[in-house]
Amino acid sequence: MPELPEVETVARSLKKLEGQTVHAIHFRRGGLREPFPVELVAQLPGQLLRRVGRRSKYLLLEFPAGTLIVHLGMSGSVRLARADEAPAKHDHMDIDFGGPGLGQARLRLRDPRRFGVVAWQPTGHSSRHLEGLGPEPLDPGFDGEVLHAALQRRGSPIKVAIMDPRVVVGVGNIYASEALHAAGIDPRKRANSLSRARAVRLAGDIQRILRDAIARGGSTLRDFHGVDGNVGTYAQQHAKVYGRAGEPCETCGTTIKNTILGGRASAWCPTCQKR
DNA sequence: CGCTGACCCTGACGGC
DNA sequence: TGCCGTCAGGGTCAGC
Predict the structure, then answer these.
(1) Paired sense of beta strands A77-81 and A91-99, if any
(2) Who's near A46: CB < 8 A, 6+ residues apart?
(3) Catalytic residue among A57, A106, A110, A201
(4) Which of A30, A35, A133, A163 is most buried, most CB within 10 Å of its CB?
(5) What is the pLDDT of residue A193?
(6) In angstroms, what CA-CA distances link A24 with A27, A38, A41, A45, A104?
(7) CA A208 / C1′ B14 distance in Å
(8) pLDDT of residue A202
(9) Under 8 Å CB-to-CB from A27, ≥6 apart: which residues?
């Protein structure tokens, strides 16, 4: 899955559904990480999809009555299925749309590992999934100063800190690894020991790498794919360290190391990345 | 309050 | 070919 660039790619692909009306919603099991909002089976039909958006790694489908919040977890994906296509083993939810221009469209959610979430946020209510989230890395409210300030209270390794959505959202294991390599920062370095200047550089590299990944349609790993079955190419073709432990660094030839930080594999170059 | 590690679940892959 | 161990993009929670 799905880090920010992948979810952004999906959200952009689903923009074509804006203005369509829901005919039906089907759930094929009780839930994923939490129970499905089964009340939608009765409430969602007839609702107009006003807007498709994204906050952090959450896909947002906005209707007059509320917002459907979808998180793809580790292995989730969304695609537009043909009406006659039988659901596969891990296809857990369908939303059927119809309206001007598109004819029929069926949005189908697949999630083998079931770490994803589907939640309903009625209009006028907040959602615990969206509360407490930090800044969007690609919004004007995020820059090196903001990042540096957020790191001051953090004694954890810098890689763990930038993957914490209270610091900045949407930076998962691939892009955290890549941004730290680009910025020349040892992922084990304590977050609150990073100078202002290096925080400014890191913020810029996070933004550049995320933008680049979005432009390439995200990364396709294992079973992630785009809405129309297309594949992104970022991690396989452009990653400098992620997934390359044991290989020589492209920049300097040093063997890429793998260190466990915050319970996650962290690939880094001991020569290019300094404390 | 912050940090660490365990955990949720299935499938893919490599070694034997 | 098949069996088994290991690992995987995320988020949450208990325990310290």
Answers:
(1) unpaired
(2) A21, A22
(3) A57
(4) A163
(5) 97
(6) 10, 12, 7, 5, 11
(7) 35
(8) 98
(9) A36, A38, A41, A92, A93
pLDDT in tens, A30-71: 999 999 999 999 999 999 999 999 999 999 999 999 999 999
User: Token pair 């953090």 is at which residue?
Assistant: A154
Please say whether the beta carbons of A78 and A12 come within 8 A. Answer: no
Report d(CA A150, CA A134) in Å as an integer.
9
Q: How far is the CA of A145 from the C1' of B10 (A)?
A: 41
Closest CA to A151 of A138, A140, A169, A164: A164
Q: Is A3 a residue of the active site?
A: yes
CA of A107 to C1' of C6 (A): 34
Q: What is the pLDDT of residues A244-260, one digit of tens each?
A: 999 999 999 999 999 99
Q: Which residue has the tokens 């083993």?
A: A89
Token couple for A107: 């949005």
Question: What is the residue type of A223?
Answer: D
| Positions in chain C where some atom is under 7 Å from a protein CB | 7-12
List A165, A188, A264, A270, catalytic entry: A264
Distance CA A195, CA A202 (A): 10
Q: For residue A230, what pLDDT is reported?
A: 65
Active-site annotation holds for A57: yes
Half-sphere exposure of A233 (CA within 13 A, CB side): 4
Closest nucleotide C1' to the C-alpha of A56: C10
Rounded Cα distance, A178 and A242, in Å: 7
